[in-house]
Amino acid sequence: MAIINATRDDFDRALLGTLGLMGPRSGEARSLLVGDLRAGHLSVLNGGSGTDTTKTRDSRRVLPVPALLLPWLTELAGDRPKSDWMFPSPRRKGAPIAKQYANQAFTRAVARANEDREEKIPRYSAHALRHTFAAISLSEAEADLLSVSQAPGHARPSITLDRYGHLSKRGLAPLMAKIDALVAKAS
């Protein structure tokens, strides 16, 4: 949250919030249309709207928008037409923001967040927010693997497991305790 809270404006906050709180690929976030936000959900097309090539192109996933992020996206969308880019380029009329913009917004926010921190946040790229989402979902939120794999659009849960499985706090001991409780209840 330190990075998102350190953004310079509402536009960057909504962009980095989408990346960090929902875990889409950068190209998918940059390719969102205003009409993709409906009834508290965001419809994400794997591969975006043609501005970026991603790994799984033939599916759309509908994700609930976190309560913290929803007002930011709603305000950003305003009353613009559904066919407008959610994150329009400030320089290229009728185009979405470029990948470089997302990375620059991330770099600016990290620099601001680091101003008063003893332990500095490393500067990677906006893509790091996607990894942070998956890592926190498994390690801190203790979300189930299938849900975590669906949010960022991994083609298979095994992809998520291979990359982030070591972070899960779930293990055999809690599983066996639940099995014991279920068996005891059934006996």
Distance between termini? 46 Å
Structural class: mainly alpha
What is the C-level CATH assignment? Mainly Alpha
State which percent range the strand residues make up. 5-15%
Q: Which percent range fits the helix content?
A: 40-55%
Q: What is the CATH architecture assignment? A: Orthogonal Bundle
- The total beta strand count reads 3
Give the count of helical stretches.
9
What strand order characterises the main sheet? 1-2-3
Description:
The protein is mostly helical and 187 residues long. It has a single domain (2-186), classed as Intergrase catalytic core (hpI Integrase, Chain A). It is 47% helix and 6% strand. Strands 1-2-3 form a 3-stranded antiparallel β-sheet. The longest helix has 16 residues, at 99-114. The chain is globular, with a radius of gyration of 18 Å. The chain starts with a helix and ends with a helix.
